[in-house]
Amino acid sequence: SPPPHLKAGSGWSAERIARQYIVPCMKYYGICVKDSFLGPQLGDGVLREVEALNKTGKFRGGQLVSQKSIPSRNIRGDQIAWVEGREPGCESIGALMAHIDEAVMYSAANGQLGDCVINGRTKAMVACYPGNGAGYVRHVDNPNSDGRFITCIYYLNKNWDVKTQGGMLQIYPEGKNVVASIEPLFDRLLIFWSDRRNPHGSEAGLRTRYAITVWYFDAKERAEAKEKYKLGKLSEGPLDRP
């Protein structure tokens, strides 16, 4: 559990967030948005740490898992850093991950998110989209059953106006004639299924914006993916990434 100065705002409850937001929204829509996730104090701490990572040159160009012949920047314009949360200067990011862990584990308890068994997650992918029209074309996070079950994105952008600055994330839920448009607003947590149910992409943005993404693994699919990887049937994928 994070120390007191790294805890979310008063009244924060993983159980309440799971019960009121994550479980019903994932069941009916496959997408969940929770605003004011951490509260301004801890949210500000996360933002300061991410800005420091950027200023000290810790970000690198985001790589593609496949399509290696296409320059990555044509598809994704983000700069990324993988963070465990225990590094010096990343304490608030670590606290954010602990809060997401708690909310996701409460949500998955007693089969509330289907028959998955969540047995781990990736490190945090901290992404910076430079304000030069950088975006990420439409894609599926886990198109080939690599074990990733849930995608969680935490946004850090204050006073963001999509009308003038762009940067909208658009999700195209499979089989539904709707598009979910998500603004990348400060202290907003977005959760959605990682597989083919949720193709998504982000529009070009005209101001630097930040997001932190973690993926949670379903134990069974992850074990099968590792087996395929060993046998060479899964030649590329996030199994060789943090």
Automatic annotation (TrEMBL):
InterPro entries: HIF_prolyl_hydroxylases, Oxoglu/Fe-dep_dioxygenase_dom, Pro_4_hyd_alph, Pro_4_hyd_alph_FE2OG_OXY. It is found in: Nucleus. GO terms for biological process: cellular response to hypoxia. One of its GO terms (molecular function) is ferrous iron binding. The keyword Methyltransferase does not apply. PANTHER family: EGL NINE HOMOLOG-RELATED, PROLYL HYDROXYLASE EGLN2. Residues 120-218 form the Fe2OG dioxygenase domain. This is hypoxia-inducible factor-proline dioxygenase. Its cofactor is L-ascorbate. Its main location: nucleus. It catalyses: L-prolyl-[hypoxia-inducible factor alpha subunit] + 2-oxoglutarate + O2 = trans-4-hydroxy-L-prolyl-[hypoxia-inducible factor alpha subunit] + succinate + CO2. Keywords: Dioxygenase, Iron, Metal-binding, Nucleus, Oxidoreductase, Vitamin C. Pfam families: 2OG-FeII_Oxy_3. It comes from Tetraodon nigroviridis. One of its GO terms (cellular component) is cytoplasm. Its EC number is 1.14.11.29. It is an enzyme of class 1 (oxidoreductase). PROSITE patterns: FE2OG_OXY.
